[in-house]
Amino acid sequence: MKTVLITGATGDVGSHLRRELASKYKLRMSDKRPLENKAKGEIFIRADISKMSDALKITKGVDAIVHLGGYSVEGPWEGILRANIIGCYNIFEAARRNGVKRIIFPTSNHAVGFYRRDQTIDHKVYPKPDGRYGVSKVFGEALGSLYADKYGMEMFMIRIGNVNPVPIDKRRLSIWFSPRDLAQLVSIGIDKPGIKFEIVYGISGNKRAWYDNANAFRLGYKPQDDAEAYASEVLGKEKPGDPTAELYQGGIFVVAEEVPNPAAPKRKKRK
Ligand code: 15L
Q: Quick one: average pLDDT of 91-101?
C-alpha cells in the first residue's frame, strides 16, 4: 500500500479525501491547524509549510504528495505569498530533496478564471488568473512544470472547480466536482504510471462544463456524477448576480478584492 501525504488535510477538500481514500492508501495527514476527530490509527503531523524544516519533515518517506495546503480563496497578498508561493516552493523542493517523485497539485479554476463563460477551454490554454489567488495557482503549475522538466519529477495538476456534496449555485453547475469523482481523479494522479507533467480539470461529468476535459479522460478518468441532476433545484433558488462576474468563469473572484469561501466550515476566531 502506498504512503500518501495530504497537506492541508483539515480543510474542506482534505476532509473529503481523508474519508474517500482511507482504505486505499496509508495516509499521512498534515496541517497548520489541529486535526479534529482524529480516529485511532490515523497519522497526523502538525506543520507550517512556510518553514522548510517542517516541509522536509512531513515529506520524508512518502510515495506521493497531494499538496492541498495553502490559502484557498482570494485574500491579502501576505497570506497568499506565505502559504501558496513560499509554502508551495517548500513542499516541491522538500519532495525533490527527499526523493519523492510524484506530486498531485490541486490548482484551481481561478488559474483560468478570466476566460469567458461562452468559451470552452482545454488543458493547453494559457493561464488567465482572476486574482492574486489565481496567480498563486499559476505559480504552482509553473513550478511543477520546472520540477518535471529539470528534475524528472511526476506532476499531476488538477484545476479544481468546486468540491461539494452537491452543486450550490448556477456557476457551480458548470464546475462542480463531487467527492467521489475527486477521489477517482486524485487516485489516477497517484497511481497512473508514466506521468511527467499533466494538467486536467477537476470537475464531474457536468453537462454545462466550460472545459474540454479530454486530457483527464485520456488518462482514464470516468466521472460518475453530473451536476445537471441538481439543475432545476439550483436554478430555482438562483438570485441575479453581478453582471460582470456572470460573464467570466471565475465568477465573483473577477470583481472582488477578497472573497469569503461559502463552502468553508466556520472557524472560531483566535483570541
Ligand atoms: C477555489 O479554488 C476555492 O478553493 C474554493 O474554495 C471555491 O471558491 C472554488 O474555487 C470555486 O470557484 O467555487
A: 98
